[in-house]
Amino acid sequence: MSSSSFGNTFNDTGDTFNALDLTSLRLETAPIRAADWIDQNMVNYAIRDILDPMKRLASSRKLSQRYIDAMGIEKLGPLACGFVINYIPGPFGEPLNIFLEFGTKPHDIYGNPYLAWPVPGGVHIGIHNKKPVKHPGFIGYNLLVSLKNWGFVDKWAENLIKGATQYLQENSFE
Fold first, then answer.
1. Alpha carbons 169 and 174: distance in angstroms, whole number
2. pLDDT per residue over 119-160, tens digit each?
């Protein structure tokens, strides 16, 4: 049990701390407490400030719903999380997410019995297995490359700092 007398605090072992000692200790631990708060809240802030706006942007640009659904935020370690586009398997197990994000160079397609191409009003899926098809390539969505340019990452970092600052202010000694 502790008691207080004339600005001093006494604990069960008889140690004495004055208000200045406690304030100093509290200030010294502020970076650690702020880092803990950030580590516990960064994923939720990233979902709100990065993932949700990215999905809205992708949807407004009429990107593939399968691609949008593959977007996520993952905790990568202490004080680290990342925006990810999870694996989307193609018909032969190829990583479509990589091709959709970064694009492809022009290439030949051999023996693919199912090809799809845009037509007015939708997509036509045709059966083609006679000769190779010359695919013109695909520029890619490039969402990962553009994340910072759209300001989502800066907003996330700014909001994390504001949240940590508010936490420290609300949890300080009077």
1. 10
2. 777 666 665 556 787 889 999 888 887 787 888 999 999 999
Q: What distance in Å separates the CA atoms of residue 14 and residue 91, rounded to the nearest whole number?
A: 72
Closest CA to 83 of 41, 54, 40: 54
Helix (H, G, I), strand (E, B) or coil at 94: coil
| b/e sequence 87-113, b meaning 16+ C-beta within 10 Å | ebeeeeeeebbeebbeeeeeeeeeeee
Residue range 40-74, pLDDT digits in tens: 999 999 999 999 999 998 898 888 898 899 999 99
| Spatial separation of the C-alpha atoms in residues 129 and 93, rounded to whole Å | 19
122 Cβ contact partners less than 8 Å away, ≥ 6 residues apart: none
pTM over 0.70: no
The Cα 164–Cα 157 span in angstroms is 11
Do the Cβ atoms of 83 and 50 come closer than 8 Å? yes
CB atoms near residue 121 (< 10 Å): 6
